[in-house]
Write a structure and sequence with these properties.
The protein is α+β, with helices and mostly antiparallel strands. The chain has helices spanning 2-30, 36-41, 49-52, and strands at residues 56-59, 65-74, 79-87, 93-94, 97-101, 104-108, 110-112, 115-117, 122-128, 136-143, 148-154, 168-171. The chain folds into 2 domains: 2-31; 35-171, no CATH class. Helix content is 22%, strand content 38%. The strands form 3 sheets. Strands 1, 2, 3, 4 and 7 form a 5-stranded antiparallel β-sheet that branches. The chain has a 5-stranded antiparallel β-sheet with strand order 8-9-10-11-12, with no helix packed on it. It has a two-stranded antiparallel ribbon with strand order 5-6. The longest helix is centred in the first third of the chain and has 29 residues, at 2-30. The radius of gyration is 21 Å and the shape is globular. The N and C termini lie far apart (76 Å).
Length: 176
């Protein structure tokens, strides 16, 4: 009797494992909706295929194409993504974003754990210079037809254990 129950349980587990495996293959087959240029452009072409499978796409507010957020590097407390815009009538392009470092501006392709609201066109992220999150800062951009415009940048370079709000480094005028 016990052997029969074990056989039934084992065959049920094997059937479930086979179904999950087939579902995973089916998902991999449907990923072809992701345009190869978006994942190839992201991460300087070195995206880990396991991470690239987690890429997310969003329709841009002006119906001018798609925004792809492609994970490049997964760390212990944040994941770096690259953003690729795939216009309906043009070539895909990887985006660069403002970065405040050492009291001056530079550029980066990396966004950290980004969020995009397709209704408002707001793209935001929060980068951490260490896991505690007391240094680094949040950034926010607005989609404006062909590119993202920086709306607000907050940052703290000193990792001091503070949980106070990050100081404003840049804030676009309300009418701009």
């Amino acid at each position: 009797m016990r052997t029969d129950r074990l056989a039934v349980l084992t065959s049920g587990l094997l059937a479930a494992a086979l179904a999950l495996s087939q579902a995973a293959w089916a998902r991999a087959d449907t990923v072809e909706a992701r345009p190869a240029p978006a994942t190839e452009l992201a991460c300087d072409g070195t995206a880990d295929p396991a991470l690239a499978a987690d890429a997310r796409s969003y329709a841009l507010p002006d119906a001018g194409g798609m925004l792809w957020l492609v994970p490049c590097i997964r760390g212990s407390y944040q994941t770096a993504y690259n953003a690729v815009v795939v216009p309906e009538d043009g070539a895909p392009r990887r985006l660069l974003f403002a970065l405040w470092r050492d009291q001056s501006w530079t550029g980066t392709a990396d966004l950290f754990d980004p969020a995009f609201d397709p209704q408002t066109g707001i793209l935001s992220d929060q980068y951490k210079d260490r896991g505690l999150g007391d240094c680094g800062g949040p950034r926010r951009w607005q989609w404006e037809g062909s590119d993202f415009r920086l709306r607000e940048y907050r940052a703290r370079s000193e990792c001091n254990g503070s949980d106070a709000a990050f100081p404003v480094i840049f804030e676009a005028p309300a009418d701009a």
